[in-house]
Amino acid sequence: MAQQRIDVAQLIDERPLASFHIWLVAFAFAIIISDGYDITAIAFAAPELLKQWAITDRSALGPVFSASLVGILVGSPFFGFVGDRYGRKAASIASLAVFGIFTLAAARAGSLDQMLWLRGFAGIGLGGLMPNMIALTGEFAPRRFRATLIIVMFCGVTLGGAIPAAISVWLVPSHGWQSIFVIGGLMPLVLAVCAWLWLPESVKYLVVKERRDEAVRILRMVAPDADIGPQTVLVPPAETRYAGFNPKHLFSEGLALITPLLWLCFAINLMGFYFLISWMPTLLIGQKLLAQSDAAIATSLVQIGGTIGGFVLCRPMERRGFWPVALLFAGAVPFVALIGYAASTSTWLLMVVVFIAGFCILGLQFGLNAASAMIYPTSVRSNGSGWAFGVGRFGSILGPIFGGKLIALKLSVTTLFLIAAIPFVVGTIACIALAMLYAASFKGAGLGERGTAAGAATP
User: N vs C: which end of the chain shows fewer Cβ within 10 Å?
Assistant: First the structure.
């Protein structure tokens, strides 16, 4: 009697969207909310910190804004390694626990130095969430919906980013800035417990690691109609090539230029985004261009615009590769440049401008996030995403610090945002090159399916 063999990658890729996929994306969405929350939490706590700690030099906040980003720079590749070595689930739980503990501790900070260190350690945990959530979601997604599900999952970033704005208006006046960090710390700790209880491990990862019993149990959840018996052989993904991780794997088989261009796009976009999200509330409130409530609304509109941008990008990206991302890069240039002028002219004009800026900046970041899951094989997928996020954090670290240096020069708000648009010009050029190279290397295949020019197909 012939032994039955099931190609795990093919089985998952050919499944229709089902309730399992919706449940998994919703779970990952909830986890990613905590990442988005952290992006804007310190920005909304900052005005209160300046008052309570009697800080007159606003540029002193630059290193504090960047502290968690330095932690992410360390945590992304480290937890990417943990995810590929010990599992996406284990890495995600550890990330949530570290992030939650140190964010909760930040509520008791009594100085900028204490806040800086606590934010840095929290960032190490935070850095592990994105690469492992990308790998986990991508490895359960059918090929034709892979970019869509990853981008939808990442829309949790924008929802999470809007929460501190509401807290700054409703809770901070009565409970102080500490309430921002108490909520931000408890959220990932609760999610860590939920993940330990209910988050499934990637089937492709389990098959690669020869953990058959676990793989069969979860595969029956993904494909309940599949005939999987005691003698069924689970065939690992065809693109699984590496027994261990070496950074050179990220530059092999057609990736020699694609990987560094992807890293450059990450770094440039994150530099511009973190300058915008970190300094915009403090600048506009400090220059008396907006009330705190209006600044909260403006920052929330960046997140809302980004959510819509992510949804709009899903299907075009699966069909056209990186070209829609390059288009959003180009669109970010004029609207970031206009923020300072709009703030000085009309509150309503500012709201429109920041909405469109968020649509472009966060929308294209969702596309870059999805791309990092598409171009790397299962055996190094968490590492590939982790390195992209880690290298990208150089940009996110420089954004707030560079902003602080510019503010110290006493430049006008209009000039500051004109300068902030410059990285997006460079990013547009880099992304066009990436789109052309990707199309040539992979013969125009969409992001859900690599072509044959570079070797094996993506699962």
Answer: N
